[in-house]
From TrEMBL:
It comes from Natronoglycomyces albus. Pfam families: VitK2_biosynth (PF02621). HAMAP family: MqnA. Keywords: Lyase, Menaquinone biosynthesis. It catalyses: chorismate = 3-[(1-carboxyvinyl)-oxy]benzoate + H2O. It comes from the Bacteria. The gene is mqnA. Catalyzes the dehydration of chorismate into 3-[(1-carboxyvinyl)oxy]benzoate, a step in the biosynthesis of menaquinone (MK, vitamin K2). InterPro entries: Menaquinone_biosynth, MqnA. This is Chorismate dehydratase. One of its GO terms (molecular function) is hydro-lyase activity. Belongs to the MqnA/MqnD family. MqnA subfamily. Its EC number is 4.2.1.151. GO terms for biological process: menaquinone biosynthetic process. Pathway: Quinol/quinone metabolism; menaquinone biosynthesis.
């Protein structure tokens, strides 16, 4: 029997979920595929992966094919640090039709930015896609939406270097709705779960154990990451505290609210009645 094909986002935000896997040897039990979020979204939907992270928007579009894994999501109940909108002037001073460069690596964060700009702040922006690099993005637009490690660089100094106003989109969502934001979830293909429930249960248990270990060893996780990323360990500890790997009832309320807003204003299906559906280990 082949090993489960499992996706791994190439961003710091997912390091806590894989920290313990490497420590325990559980990575030997899976076929790990590292890629940017948009590639992993496509691979899971197309059946090239069995289990993996998927952006919330893509999960909503393909929920009939997927089951969520319990207690696993990339979430923030306030500032997230790694999802932001950078602008040449504060939003309050912006004209009604700013140009906005969209980093093309996260459909959920892009949609969140559009919801906030259009529905909360009442703007009518003109959007275009761009490679996720703040220097080139802000050279071609009034504002730029970035996620992941590039957004962290903006938060931890690059935004100040460029004299930019930086809005944390996790904090903006929390202020608007009083709910957490769910950026991504972990899911398993329904057909794979039906055929291999024991393997899926094993992967889920390994993930949850890894997250718990990372929470206990957060300073070690941050120190390890700081050796190969351009961030100080103390800043990464702050980041990992704000970015929560989990999916409790409060997060699910935020998920449903985002889905309802996205359905109201954009072409995104709502959460099915009684949903979302989870893989149920036996």
């Amino acid at each position: 029997m082949r090993r489960p094909r499992v996706g791994h986002i190439e961003f710091l935000n997912c390091l806590p979920i894989y920290w313990g896997l490497a420590r325990s040897g559980a990575l030997l039990d899976v076929e790990l595929h590292r890629a940017p979020p948009d590639q992993l979204n496509h691979a899971l939907v197309q059946g090239h992966l069995d289990i993996g992270p998927i952006s919330l928007v893509e999960y909503l579009r393909h929920s009939e094919e997927l089951l969520l894994l319990p207690d696993l999501g990339v979430t923030a109940d306030g500032p997230v640090l790694s999802v932001n909108l950078s602008s040449k002037v504060p939003l309050a001073e912006s004209g009604p039709n700013p140009t906005v460069a969209l980093g093309s690596t996260s459909r959920t964060s892009v949609l969140l930015a559009k919801l906030l700009l259009e529905q909360r702040y009442g703007l009518a922006p003109v959007y275009h896609e761009a490679a996720p690099d703040i220097d080139t993005m802000i050279a071609s637009a009034d504002m730029a939406v970035l996620i992941g490690d590039e957004a962290l660089k903006v938060h931890f100094g690059r935004g100040e270097d460029l004299n930019l106003s930086v809005l944390d989109l996790g904090a903006a969502w929390r202020e608007w709705t009083a709910l957490p934001m769910v950026f991504a979830v972990w899911a398993v293909r329904r057909d794979y779960a039906a055929a291999n429930p024991g393997l899926v249960k094993g992967v889920l248990e390994a993930f949850l154990s890894s997250v718990e270990l990372s929470r206990r060893e957060l300073e070690q996780v941050a120190a390890h990451a700081s050796r190969w990323e351009p961030f100080e360990a103390v800043n990464l500890v702050d980041y990992f505290h704000k970015l929560w790997i989990g999916l409790g009832e409060r997060h699910l309320s935020g998920l449903r609210e985002f889905a309802a807003q996205a359905n109201r204003y954009f072409d995104v299906p709502p959460v099915a009645e009684g949903g979302p559906e989870f893989f149920a280990p036996t």
